[in-house]
């Protein structure tokens, strides 16, 4: 265990301002298999208690001045910043991402707290010209009540702050469930929230093992006190939560799987495209929902692009998160590794060629070699499913129309990227892509300042930016009459 600050390791859940529960579920380092700590295995009853606490805390929190909530969030942001190094080490240990990436995520995750601390003061209403002389129309925005958040392991900190910060800023209270693989970062965040002065019951964190997640989710989606479910994770679970939430007509905000196309046109700056592909494909060992999943390269530059990309990929250092200069860590678990292997095997069987990598890494465990496949076609599994691993499949195309049609040929619609130096094409393709986010000559698009989210089966709603605030408020129309 490298330099994990024990002061931030909590082995209990945080409910109603108390640390509670028996540590029982082991949390391990995916690079070594070492047990780092244990956390409680909460179920429906404990989740209900957390929801009750959040419900009880709601009126007082909602009644606070926006500025008061803003100041508490700002203190939380300052504390996260002050502890960024410990948080990054903790995250790398339980998740496996290289320290440089973990530091980046702490900064990214903290930025949502800072941004929404500021936005808390700007939840403006509206007046609308009245249809009658003796009446006025007003629109105000109010918090909804208890928000439930369920978050994934690939961004153990940022996926929490992206939901919790706007929820709290607008006066809601929250019960959050982190992924069983990465609860330690989540609980460390709770400790800092407590220190920042978030009142008891306003923010609660419940943990469980893999199986327990369903029981917590079922309580969150069926309990009538919960008014909204915010979820980031797989499309399968997102659909299930949406179905379950229908029983009490809860609002749902879903960030689900992607199948991002990364298109390189003949007129692109190839070095820039290679740098973008490296960042977009191999970040977090290919385990982000906006990672390039299909790299579509125009015929005229296909071989040149493949060669340039291979040169960079072969230079990548693979290893434990804490080793210097490591650019790629292990995959999160055995299941993830098996999926990557299956996708590569299926592609090779159907005619793809391995340009580099293509097998488990000699480091063992869940390490996989950074891989490039060429001659990839739409019949292969990795064209239609999210691989979530360090595999770059290169598809060949001939025309702009073909590239757009291929890119859109998926039920997913989260992020898309393309490289071109033609201004007209930049507009045509941006508008033609059926995706919620588009990077033009850019491979990394996440920022707290912009609306993150997808279309089609990639989700509902947007997180981040001033639009992210709207997800957490109810609009109320008031007609004042007899004036
Ligand atoms: P992944 O396949 O990337 O692990 P999941 O959608 O399974 O994505 O996990 C995302 C989050 O959803 C995690 O916190 C996980 O524990 C949780 N989860 C998984 N199954 C359920 C379920 N049936 N109900 C509620 N939450 C669930």
From TrEMBL:
Active site feature: 255
A single MF term (Gene Ontology): succinate-semialdehyde dehydrogenase (NAD+) activity
GO cellular component: cytosol
Domain of life of the source: Bacteria
Domain Aldehyde dehydrogenase: 23-478
Entry keyword Oxidoreductase: yes
InterPro entries: Ald_DH/histidinol_DH (IPR016161), Ald_DH_C (IPR016163), Ald_DH_CS_CYS (IPR016160), Ald_DH_CS_GLU (IPR029510), Ald_DH_N (IPR016162), Aldehyde_DH_dom (IPR015590), Aldehyde_DH_Superfamily (IPR050740), Succ_semiAld_DH (IPR010102)
GO biological process: gamma-aminobutyric acid catabolic process
CDD domains per record: ALDH_F5_SSADH_GabD
Pfam families assigned: Aldedh
Keywords on record: Oxidoreductase
Family, per entry: Belongs to the aldehyde dehydrogenase family.
PANTHER family, A to Z: SUCCINATE-SEMIALDEHYDE DEHYDROGENASE, MITOCHONDRIAL
Name of the molecule in the record: Succinate-semialdehyde dehydrogenase/glutarate-semialdehyde dehydrogenase
Organism the protein comes from: Dichotomicrobium thermohalophilum
């Amino acid at each position: 265990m490298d330099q994990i600050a024990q002061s931030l390791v909590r082995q209990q859940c945080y409910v109603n301002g108390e640390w509670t529960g028996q540590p029982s579920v082991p949390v391990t380092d995916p690079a070594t298999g070492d047990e780092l700590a244990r956390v409680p295995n909460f179920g429906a009853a404990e989740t209900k208690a957390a929801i009750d606490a959040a419900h009880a805390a709601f009126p007082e929190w909602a009644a606070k001045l926006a500025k008061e909530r803003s100041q508490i969030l700002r203190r939380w942001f300052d504390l996260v910043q002050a502890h960024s190094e410990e948080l990054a080490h903790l995250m790398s240990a339980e998740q496996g991402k290289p320290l440089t990436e973990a530091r980046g995520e702490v900064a990214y995750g903290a930025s949502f707290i800072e941004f929404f601390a500021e936005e808390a003061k700007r939840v403006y209403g509206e007046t609308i010209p009245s249809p009658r002389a003796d009446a006025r129309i007003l629109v105000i925005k109010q918090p909804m009540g208890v928000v439930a958040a369920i978050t994934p392991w690939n961004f153990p900190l940022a996926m929490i702050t992206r939901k919790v910060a706007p929820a709290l800023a607008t006066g809601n209270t929250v019960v959050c469930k982190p992924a069983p693989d990465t609860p330690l970062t989540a609980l460390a965040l709770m400790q800092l929230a407590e220190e920042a002065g978030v009142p008891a019951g306003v923010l609660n964190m419940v943990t469980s093992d893999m199986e327990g997640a369903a029981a917590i989710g079922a309580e969150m989606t069926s309990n009538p006190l919960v008014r909204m479910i915010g979820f980031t994770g797989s499309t399968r679970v997102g659909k299930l939560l949406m179905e379950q939430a229908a029983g009490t007509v809860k609002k749902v905000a879903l960030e689900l799987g992607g199948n991002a196309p990364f298109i390189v046109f003949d007129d692109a700056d190839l070095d820039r495209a290679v740098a973008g592909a490296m960042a977009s494909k191999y970040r977090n060992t290919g385990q982000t929902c906006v990672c390039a999943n299909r790299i579509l390269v125009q015929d005229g530059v296909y071989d040149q692009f493949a060669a340039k990309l291979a040169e960079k990929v072969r230079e990548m250092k693979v290893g434990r998160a804490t080793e210097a200069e490591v650019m790629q860590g292990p995959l999160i678990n055995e299941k993830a590794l098996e999926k990557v292997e299956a996708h590569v095997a299926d592609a090779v069987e159907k005619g793809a060629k391995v340009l580099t990598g293509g097998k488990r890494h000699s480091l063992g465990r869940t390490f996989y070699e950074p891989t490039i496949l060429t001659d990839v076609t739409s019949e292969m599994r990795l064209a239609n499913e999210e691989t979530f691993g360090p595999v770059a499949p290169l598809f060949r195309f001939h025309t702009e129309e073909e590239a757009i049609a291929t890119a859109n040929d998926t039920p997913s619609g989260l992020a898309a990227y393309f490289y071109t130096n033609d201004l007209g094409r930049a507009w045509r393709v941006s508008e033609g892509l059926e995706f919620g986010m588009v990077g033009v000559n850019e491979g990394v698009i996440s920022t707290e300042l912009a609306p993150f989210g997808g279309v089609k089966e990639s989700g509902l709603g947007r997180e981040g930016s001033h639009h992210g605030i709207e997800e957490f408020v109810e609009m109320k129309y008031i007609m004042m009459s007899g004036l």
